[in-house]
Amino acid sequence: MGRKMLYSEFKSKEVINMKDCKRLGKVTDFEFDECTGQICKIIVAGGGSFFDWFKCEPDYVIPYKDIKQIGPDIILVDVKEHCRR
Fold first, then answer.
1. What is the pLDDT of residues 5-14, one digit of tens each?
2. How far is 51 from 67, CA to CA, in rounded Å?
3. Which one-letter DSSP state was computed for residue 84?
4. Strand, coil or helix: what is 72?
């Protein structure tokens, strides 16, 4: 059985895109299937750094299938730039 994780742990991890090694930001929300309880998509706030917070960048919406690895500090994803909301 896989390791269980609290939402508070999940949202504290930095999301990194494997395609260009770009820091996308941190998880702010997720969409899940009410019937199965499985996460369908994660939402990452637009702007990967503190200074980007003042910009009006759209959020990243990343399908759960594009998450390649969840480590102790980061979440590695494999997405194209068009995943913005």
1. 898 998 889 9
2. 26
3. B
4. coil
